[in-house]
Amino acid sequence: MTQSDLLTRLSPLLKAECAAEASAAGVDAADLEQAVWVRLLSERDGQPAVRLHAAVRAEARAARRRARREVPYDPTAAEPSGRRLESGVEQQVLAAEAGRELRAAVRRLPGRCPRLLAALLSRSDPTYREIAGKLGMSQGSLGPVRSRCLGCLRRMLLAEIAAP
Known about the structure:
Blueprint: H1 3-25, H2 29-42, H3 48-69, H4 88-107, H5 113-120, H6 128-135, H7 142-162
Helix pairs in contact: 1-2, 1-3, 2-3, 5-7
């Protein structure tokens, strides 16, 4: 099948599929259709008609991911508080400072809360079973203890904010 035959034969189906998926993906149906054609024509393995629906869904998911990552640039934008946005370096420094303050507050929590929250926030992303084994707790008690620890942390931070 030639590319022109392919375009003629699949175009109505592709238009319908793209129109159905475009609004949920937050993109224009014509843009989605164009991206799907590029995908279908660049992947010459198999039958494009069979892959059409999967290609539309994949391009719609990719468009949603791109939309979440894209932030329009506006150098005059201000925060809701009315302050101007800090530069990228300033934001990184402020975020690092906030992280240090949060970790310090977690270390001041009573009992086993510091160890539990540190394990939950670990970069290695352990499972509840691994955390329970490491802390010597039952797996079923992790959720309630975590909830109490977070409540305690919340109250501690609110008290610190209220009393400068």
